[in-house]
Amino acid sequence: MNDRLTIADKQYGSRLLVGTGKYQDFAQTRAALDTSGAEIVTVAIRRVNIGQHPDEPNLLDALPPDRFTILPNTAGCFTADEAVRTLMLARELLDGAALVKLEVLGDMRSLYPNMPETLKAAEILVKDGFEVMVYCADDPIQARMLEDLGCVAIMPLASLIGSGMGILNPWNLGLILGRIEVPVIVDAGVGTASDAAIAMELGCDGVLMNTAIAHAQNPIRMAGAMKMAVEAGREAFLAGRMAKKAYAADPSSPRAGLIGS
Question: Per-residue confidence at 126, pLDDT binned at 50, 70, 90?
Fold first, then answer.
């Protein structure tokens, strides 16, 4: 695609962001990411080794930072303090890389974001020089608050993490898109390619997913499907869909001028 995704003054050719958890092994992870065309890949610092455990396999051997933009995230953090400490560790492990994904969870069962703690962590991280992409509720007021704090991308959930339920509230996403100037990237809840296409048709700047690819019966093939869905949805958004016209039939082959009419 000619139009590129810009986050924190850096441009990317792909609008599909992909997680690195839940695959069979690092080889399958790399194969899925290559097929997806993703350039930004998220890594859960509390769950995946990127150098903090020298005696264990290192994900960066399979996903070198010179090929992918590694986006450390705070999956598994339930307080602002936990999230801030985790991302400070990530910055050290990634030689000072500032781009991060913040998520502060509310409870183990739903993994819904804890917004007061998210706002607290975002303010601390931005002041410390981080470029914060932030997982949040689909609340346009709090999304605007996060943008005002200096976050470089707003990432509202489509539905609960790992649920595969798709976009449950397109109206709230529309409200966020109407108020936010930084990129809006749907995060969590995508289950299949049509979900990704719908997110892009709504005007979202990108889609982030993990489980939808990693838990597919054929992850490699699903990665390719998601790549095409994001691209098709973006093209449809840029093209502008036809207006919906209830009970206003307009035949594609008009009768005027037919022989014998």
Answer: very high
